Amino acid sequence: MAAIHPVFNHSTPTRQLHIITWGCQMNVYDSNRMIDLLRPLGYSVTPKAENADVLILNTCHIRDKATEKVFSELGRLKLIKELRLQNGYSTLIAVAGCVAQAEGKIILERAPYVDIILGPQTYHKLPKMILESSKKSGNIIEIDFPVESKFDFLPSTSEAPGQSAFLTIQEGCDKFCSYCVVPYTRGAEESRPVQAILDEAKHLCQLGVKEITLLGQNVNAYHGEGPQGSTWNLAKLIEKLSLIPNLLRIRYTTSHPKDMEDSLIEAHRDLPTLMPFVHLPVQSGSDKILKAMNRGHTSDDYRRLIDKLKRHKPDIALSSDFIVGHPGESVPDFQATIKLIEDIKFAQSFSFKYSPRPGTTAALSKNQISETEKDSRLKELQALLNDQQTQFNQQTIHKTLPVLFTHRGRKPKQIVGKSPFLQAVHITTDQNLIGQEKNVRIDECLTFSLSGSLV
Question: Which of 114, 170, 174, 380 is the S-S candidate for 216 at Cβ 3.0 to 4.6 Å?
Fold first, then answer.
């Protein structure tokens, strides 16, 4: 562990807050909302953990050895807390997110210096918990699933998040895939009311946001309460959002094949604001493994969905998730996944080795695959996916793409934006184009980005 060199700076009256965020876009959204909750109490964000009066670790339980990574980071935060105390400053440590939900009591046993444990459904209580913690000794733990929705208690974002923003519209999952802990850490599927989403989206656009990504564990399972007790699906919500002035782009993630309704596929054809990019996890190309995963669809079901998407939107780009080495996966099962990837061709994807998650059915299976075999399969699969991503990017050379510029690059006069297909694109210009969408001719395909020039 590297040495810690505290830099104590309390010349300003504001309290300092430092958040470390792991995991998905939803955790990023949650961290930003925690900042919104604490800002009225006088907290401002500091990039230095050594200066923070409150340290929050917002955790993810999806990846392998997630809990041990949390304890490793907590060891570092403990040293910071002790050093600050020696210099006369008190420090509160909070662990939030999915590891807190799943392992809350274990965290308190192994790291009793943690002051607050809160699950992803209870962070709206964070100000109250901090106040209570400052008045008494001992730990505070909130990992129940409350009756009330946290979204009813969250304040509006007061600071501009930039040109792009996340907006959670749905949480939880009812699918119970064999490998996944989300139903246990995020709870049952719940959709936010339509009006609440519209109000938040309009507020974001008033702050200068030009692109909104709608978030959900199963975002296309969205069925929120609309006007006069009606129920809106994701396609209808996106159609309404597309009418907001100055909202140039709409995206959504993560989807499930079982919830890919025809109306959403048609929305990609009919709504220019909806970007031609779909992240649709398939996980495996083997029907045997898909059944073992409890995915609720076959590989042919997935292929038919992709065919329908391409018929309605021929230029649509596809992304997916893959798990290799799920218990019981044979070599032919793995090759079926390779064949599906070769048939469909993905613009980008995420791939992982299977790792047992406590409480899931797959973790109890006796047909576990060796780490050596999982490593070998993952290497082969990722090589294919990387080749496909490179081929997709190379196909854009000499084409003209609309690019939404979001921030300055590392080089002088360089600005960076996103293509409709979620590719990073940078150009060199004297113009201040951040927040604008401009046509760019793609000149070069780099490892992780595209380079071009203004048309």
Answer: 170
Structure tokens at 293: 């995963």
pLDDT digits (tens, 9 = 90+) for 112-155: 999 999 988 888 889 889 988 877 766 887 766 665 566 666 66
All domains in the chain, ordered by first residue? 15-142 (3.40.50.12160), 400-454 (2.40.50.140)
117: its two tokens = 């444990």
Which runs of consecutive H residues, i.e. helices, occur in 39-125? 66-86, 98-110
pLDDT in tens, 198-247: 999 999 999 999 999 999 999 999 999 999 999 999 999 999 999 999 99
Comparing CA positions, the residue from 28, 109, 31, 23 lying closest to residue 74 is 109
How many whole angstroms separate alpha carbon 314 and alpha carbon 244? 26
Rg, Å, the chain Cα set: 23
Cβ neighbors of 436 (< 8 A, separation 6 or more) are 404, 405
Is 211 within 8 Å of 164 (Cβ atoms)? yes
Question: Which residue(s) pair with 199 in the sheet?
Answer: none
Starting at the edge strand found earlier in the chain, the sheet holding 348-353 runs 277-279, 317-324, 348-353
Q: Which of 151-160, 321-330, 382-391 has the lowest mean pLDDT?
A: 151-160
Interstrand relation of 211-215 and 164-168 (parallel, antiparallel or unpaired)? parallel
